[in-house]
């Protein structure tokens, strides 16, 4: 029979709270003393809560002031190493606690059922108790109308000071995109979606570079591309040296000097790249919390891409797994009060349409992405499809023994591209025309004489 307690886990959580007041603050309200199976551990956690509530340091001397503690158990706790991803372990502690309470409740069921009462009354009472056990609410998240109105007035004041500003979030680097979105704002989940080869990672690197220019920090989870390749693309865009030359290190003296200057520039920036190729929402949460605690300048998180993230759940259905990941990212953006950009693939079926511009229904694997996202951007380059179509016509003509000469000539330097704003929770949707510079592997605004139409 499985034991629904883990004393090592309990000691590690208590040790983390004692070693770092920030650790306790991050999980305050998530667990209660009764979640610990050992009474001595419950007493230590009660003392920790008492210290925090009275504004005192969470230290041994203050803990003993509030509660008579078992010295041996306290020493075992102090000797236990603290943990990095405290939230994940706290969740495990709660799971074990709820299972223990459910088992205790199950032992009482025969007595309840044998009571001389109506079945409907007994079943309703049992349902309520099970619900209360498994759906504990953090009352800190419940706000009275007075507090809501105070926060609203503060928001009005903030917006008043920003009313003449085009950008109130992070500058995207694209004038028309800033106009439509007002920048990437704190707490937002932004999805960038496209078919392979359209340049969604490249567009993301544009956003990253723009944020770094503002001397803000960025954390990137690159699950598909190694960190060195990410830097090669950033250097190409920064130095205007063709990416292919950088990839092969085929550079002259002047180009090596420009690369050196760019590397020196980036060395002073706060860019963190996680490129293990494997990450769950728990991993992302733990790493991002830790880095943000260490570096206050971190203002943006990028995940490339959501389809490669693994689920913490036991769901077999990938749609449900992606729903869990999507919701987790949105909650994390709100918790850390920063924008999170996540890349996503699109369904292959769109390539069967005459007009291959993406739509919301093309998002792969989950409608939850559409629901959770504040902003959804699609990347589209028409010339990619035009070239494919011309090759198909040429191959078909050859198969039929006919000659076919295409008049389509693809520009080797640049081509027109589109950023389609498919969802914008607080603004208009529409199409933004940009340029894709092939050699530099980056996007840029079109010259000013090119007009862009917005659709409300």
Automatic annotation (TrEMBL):
Mitochondrion keyword on record: no
Boundaries of every SF4 helicase domain copy: 163-450
Isomerase among keywords: yes
One function term, GO molecular function aspect: helicase activity
Keywords of the record: ATP-binding, DNA replication, DNA-binding, Helicase, Hydrolase, Isomerase, Nucleotide-binding, Primosome
Top enzyme category: isomerase
Reaction it catalyzes: ATP + H2O = ADP + phosphate + H(+)
SMART domains: AAA
InterPro entries xrefs: AAA+_ATPase, DNA_heli_DnaB-like_N_sf, DNA_helicase_DnaB, DNA_helicase_DnaB-like_C, DNA_helicase_DnaB-like_N, DNA_helicase_N/primase_C, P-loop_NTPase
E.C. designation(s): 5.6.2.3
Function of the molecule: The main replicative DNA helicase, it participates in initiation and elongation during chromosome replication. Travels ahead of the DNA replisome, separating dsDNA into templates for DNA synthesis. A processive ATP-dependent 5'-3' DNA helicase it has DNA-dependent ATPase activity.
Similarity annotation: Belongs to the helicase family. DnaB subfamily.
NCBIfam families registered for this protein in UniProt: DnaB, PRK08506.1
Protein name, per record: Replicative DNA helicase
Lineage: Bacteria, Pseudomonadati, Campylobacterota, Epsilonproteobacteria, Campylobacterales
């Amino acid at each position: 029979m499985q034991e629904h307690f883990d004393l090592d886990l309990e000691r590690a959580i208590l040790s983390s709270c004692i070693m770092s007041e920030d650790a306790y603050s991050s999980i305050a309200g998530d667990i209660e003393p009764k979640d610990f199976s050992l009474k001595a551990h419950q007493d230590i956690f009660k003392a920790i809560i008492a210290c925090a509530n009275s504004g005192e340091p969470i230290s041994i001397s203050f803990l003993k002031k509030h509660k008579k503690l078992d010295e041996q158990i306290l020493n075992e706790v102090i000797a236990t190493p603290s943990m990095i991803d405290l939230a994940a372990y706290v969740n495990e502690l709660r799971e074990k606690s709820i299972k223990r309470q459910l088992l205790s409740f199950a032992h009482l069921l025969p007595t309840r059922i044998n009571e001389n009462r109506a079945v409907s009354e007994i079943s309703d009472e049992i349902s309520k108790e099970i619900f209360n056990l498994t759906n504990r609410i953090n009352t800190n998240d419940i706000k009275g109308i007075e507090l809501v109105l105070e926060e609203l007035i503060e928001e009005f004041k903030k917006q008043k000071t920003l009313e003449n500003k085009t950008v109130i979030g992070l500058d995207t680097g694209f004038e028309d995109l800033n106009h439509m979105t007002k920048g990437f704002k704190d707490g937002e989940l932004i999805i960038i979606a496209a078919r392979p080869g359209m340049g969604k990672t490249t567009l993301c690197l544009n956003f990253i570079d723009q944020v770094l220019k503002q001397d803000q920090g960025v954390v990137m989870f690159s699950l598909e591309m190694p960190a060195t390749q990410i830097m090669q693309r950033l250097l190409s865009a920064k130095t205007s040296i063709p990416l292919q030359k950088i990839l092969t290190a085929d550079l002259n003296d002047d180009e090596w000097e420009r690369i050196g200057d760019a590397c020196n520039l980036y060395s002073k920036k706060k860019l963190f790249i996680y490129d293990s190729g494997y990450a769950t929402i728990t991993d992302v949460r733990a790493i991002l919390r830790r880095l943000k605690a260490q570096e206050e300048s971190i203002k943006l998180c990028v995940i490339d891409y959501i389809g490669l993230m693994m689920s913490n759940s036991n769901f077999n259905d990938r749609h449900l797994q992606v729903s869990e990941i999507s919701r987790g990212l949105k909650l994390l953006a709100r918790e850390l009060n920063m924008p999170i950009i996540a890349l996503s693939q699109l369904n292959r079926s769109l390539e069967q349409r005459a007009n291959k511009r993406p739509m919301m229904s093309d998002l792969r694997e989950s409608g939850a992405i559409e629901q959770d996202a504040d902003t959804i951007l699609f990347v589209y380059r028409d010339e990619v499809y035009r070239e494919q179509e011309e090759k198909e016509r040429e191959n078909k003509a050859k198969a039929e023994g006919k000659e076919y000469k295409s008049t389509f000539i693809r520009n080797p330097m640049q081509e027109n591209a589109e950023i389609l704003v498919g969802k914008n929770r607080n603004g208009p949707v529409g199409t933004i025309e940009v340029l894709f510079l092939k050699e530099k592997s980056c996007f840029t605004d079109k010259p000013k004489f090119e007009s862009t139409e917005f659709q409300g």
